[in-house]
Specification:
- The complex is a heterodimer of chains A (358) and B (262).
- Chain A has 358 residues and is an all-alpha fold.
- In chain A, 76% of the residues lie in helices and 1% in strands.
- Chain A is built from 16 helices and two strands.
- In chain A, helix 4 packs across helix 15.
- The N terminus of chain A is likely disordered.
- Chain B has one domain: P-loop containing nucleotide triphosphate hydrolases (Rossmann fold, 3-Layer(aba) Sandwich).
- Chain B is 33% helix and 24% strand.
- The chains are: A mainly alpha (358), B alpha/beta (262).
- Chains A and B meet through helix 11 and helix 12 of A and helix 2, strand 6 and helix 3 of B.
- Chain A: One of its GO terms (cellular component) is plasma membrane.
């Protein structure tokens, strides 16, 4: 394994290195955030905007325009990119820990498809819901529906793939494929019965891009993602124990079922909120944790925060690439992550061919 | 003391453990022996609180089913038959996990215990190695070190702690079999208790203070090895006609662990 070739510090202790990597990633996150708000099809200058913000009033029509571009277009997009990247990467790391397998990724095993089905259900059939209910959930209707879809898919997968506390990898991947196919088929049926306006909504949403990022979207998806990400570090020790097996985790004092419940609900919430905003973005959840395990090791106490940061950085970088490479047009970000992630995933599969027995 | 009365376990409708009673005292190595599929491991899992069972089951007087997982984790630690891990943990990281039950928050102390535990299982200096790169026997000893760190002090608040070991020497060479059994014996000498599922009857005779012989989920015999290990029991339980303490024909080499000079 490549991980084994990396030099280890004295006595197999990687906590110092992990802390260093997390600090470096935090700095890098800020840099990428700045860079992302500074680059784009327009020549709007972050420096000018910052100056005009400090001085209070926009000094000219030009800087007024720049201010809108930077504050209302680029900044929410960058923040959503960070949040969604973090949600995808951390969810991947948690699912992999829970399933005790480095191949479990919400995008691969049907969780994202389930969330997508929930979102499309809401777009197409949401009008039939009582107005009072819709008024109550308001802008959260779409994320909530995606959350419910993701949760249903996750629970179904867990029930199918786990027998007597042992999760079968082959069953998990195959069941994930089937769940994804089923969810996509039902989504297809819904699109078939949708009217023109709903169809436009579905198509626009399923393009899987950060292009439609607005402050209201940041404010609806942001709290859900932040809340679920805030819960997960408390599961780190338990997830470490579960890598030795669920029975062993119980022997070590972990309330396994409770931990699984919290983890699955948190992941479904984070993925649901992400999918509701940006559609399904594949491979971030598998690539980021895998790279980090090679550098800082699989200890979830460090892996989870590092994955949140690196996931945000990579997704934001992919988004910058997507919107500048063919400027003023844009590539869907899902294409960029798949182009980079799919070959990486194949490489992981090849490396693990012997141990997964697939 | 761990005490089970009329313990029964059903798995998928089949009775695996049948009204078994067992007592494991502090200061003693209690061995569970029996042929494959006789319910030894299932008995261990039930006593560990891991699977559903009926009958009475107590550890130091408290109902095992009523204790929270973290409470059980401070009173008993369990070594499974084999542990596979999908992620690249180092030996040190695995052993340190045993210390995460909340009783050992002092990092320097935890570090010292982890090093001592690795030395005890004859893996000194293995801290920086990757678990997946070790041999089966080395992995088993790493897991034993982790299990021991979980209840490092054999007596906690005046109550004995128990090591539950499922075939602890199954992958080990003969010298390490003796090392590990001696380690279990020492743990008992310091006030703790050990329950071990065993296949090697010679090691059992050597190290067990008390043993339970199982067949088809039932305890056929219980007592000191000298009482339980009889020609009749060997034939009845293992279906094998053989003589206890009999010598082979002259000229056939045989090696007994009893003759080892440690």
């Amino acid at each position: 394994m490549t991980a084994h070739r990396l030099r280890l510090g004295a006595g197999g202790d990687r906590t110092g290195r992990a802390r260093l990597v997390i600090a470096a990633l935090a700095v890098l996150t800020l840099l990428v955030l700045l860079l992302s708000t500074a680059t784009g099809a327009s020549d709007a200058s972050v420096v000018d905007v910052a100056l005009s913000l400090v001085s209070g009033e926009p000094s000219s029509v030009l800087s007024q325009r720049d201010r809108i571009i930077v504050i209302d277009i680029r900044l929410p997009r960058a923040l959503l990119g960070l949040l969604i990247g973090a949600a995808l990467a951390v969810s991947g790391a948690v699912m992999q820990g829970l399933f005790r397998n480095p191949l479990a990724d919400p995008g691969l095993i049907g969780i994202s498809s389930g969330a997508a089905l929930g979102a499309v259900l809401m777009i197409v059939l949401g009008g039939a819901l009582p107005a009072a209910l819709l008024g109550l959930v308001g802008p959260f209707a779409l994320p909530l529906a995606a959350f419910a879809g993701g949760l249903a898919a996750t629970l179904l997968l867990y029930r199918i793939a786990t027998l007597h506390g042992q999760t079968s990898v082959a069953t998990m991947l195959l069941a994930g494929l089937a769940i994804a196919a089923l969810a996509s088929a039902v989504t297809g049926v819904l699109i078939y019965v949708a009217d023109d306006r709903q169809l436009r909504d579905v198509t626009f949403w399923s393009l899987g891009s950060l292009a439609g990022s607005t402050w209201p979207k940041v404010l609806t998806a942001g709290p859900v993602i932040l809340l679920s990400l805030a819960v997960l570090p408390f599961l780190a020790r338990g997830l470490n124990a579960i890598t030795l097996g669920e029975a062993t985790a119980f022997h070590m004092g972990v309330k396994v079922q409770k931990l699984k419940n919290i983890a699955v609900v948190s992941v479904a919430a984070a993925i649901g909120a992400s999918v509701a905003v940006s559609g399904g973005i594949a491979f971030v959840g598998i690539v980021v944790p895998h790279i980090l395990r090679m550098i800082i090791g699989p200890d979830h106490r460090y892996l989870l925060p590092a994955a949140a940061l690196l996931g945000g950085i990579l997704l934001l970088a992919a988004d910058m690439f997507a919107r500048t490479i063919v400027a003023p047009a844009e590539l869907p970000i899902g294409i960029v992550t798949a182009l980079a992630g799919a070959p990486f995933f194949l490489w992981v599969l090849l490396r693990h061919r012997a141990s997964t027995g697939l | 003391m761990i005490c089970a009365k009329n313990l029964s376990v059903r798995l998928s409708g089949k009775l695996i453990v049948d009204t078994l009673s067992l007592t494991a005292k502090a200061g003693q190595v209690t061995a569970i022996v029996g042929p494959n599929g006789s319910g030894k491991t299932t008995t261990m899992k039930a006593i560990a609180g891991e699977i559903a069972s009926t009958g009475e089951m107590t550890i130091n007087g408290d109902d095992i089913r009523k204790l929270e997982p973290w409470q059980l984790a401070t009173r008993r630690a369990v070594l499974p038959q084999a542990t596979t891990i999908a992620f690249p943990f180092t030996v040190r990281e695995i052993v340190r996990m045993g210390l995460s039950t909340g009783l050992n928050n002092d990092a320097a102390h935890a570090q010292a215990i982890a090093a001592e535990a690795l030395a005890a299982v004859d893996l000194e200096g293995f801290e920086g190695r990757f678990y997946q790169e070790l041999s089966g026997g080395e992995q088993q000893r790493v897991q034993l070190a982790r299990v021991m760190t979980q209840i490092w002090d054999p007596v906690l608040d005046g109550m004995p702690c128990f090591l539950m070991l499922d075939e602890p020497v199954s992958s080990l060479d003969i010298r390490h079999q003796l090392t590990i059994m001696q380690l279990a014996k020492d743990y008992c000498a310091r006030g703790g208790g050990v329950i071990a599922v065993m296949h090697d009857l010679n090691l059992t005779a050597m190290y067990a203070d008390h043993m339970v012989m199982m067949k088809k989920g039932k305890a056929i015999a219980a007592g000191a090895p000298a009482e339980v290990l009889t020609d009749a029991a060997m034939e009845e339980v293992f279906g094998c006609r053989m003589r206890v303490s009999g010598l082979p024909a002259a000229g056939t080499p045989f090696i007994l662990p009893q003759t080892a000079v440690l």
